[in-house]
């Protein structure tokens, strides 16, 4: 379990380094965000984001039920999370790119999505998290 938390910590550290590099390379201004704020670009983004959050919540509850009570593979659970992660970040990146005052923010969103998706994909591919169940 310690290795898992160390890997998560390293993942977020690497993601932060990539963001710093991209900010300097593309001259992207740092946007002040609160930790649990919603940061919607416009009202349509807010409506789509909340719809996606509700669908994700229901899907995650279903994944947990199917994984722990019906014997579904834990990797299929992680694959469902991967799809939801990509969908959520893609919607945010699209609205940042299309409707934001600073469309370069979408570069940071896509990079964060790519790093998280790659890490989760690697965990699925190499069956790294099956020992947690």
Automatic annotation (TrEMBL):
Could you list the residue ranges that cross the membrane?
A: 6-22, 50-68, 74-95, 107-126
Any signal peptide, and if so, which residues?
none
Report if keyword NADP is assigned.
no
Question: What keywords does the record list, in alphabetical order?
Answer: Membrane, Transmembrane, Transmembrane helix
Q: Which InterPro entries match?
A: DUF4181
What's the name of the protein?
A: DUF4181 domain-containing protein
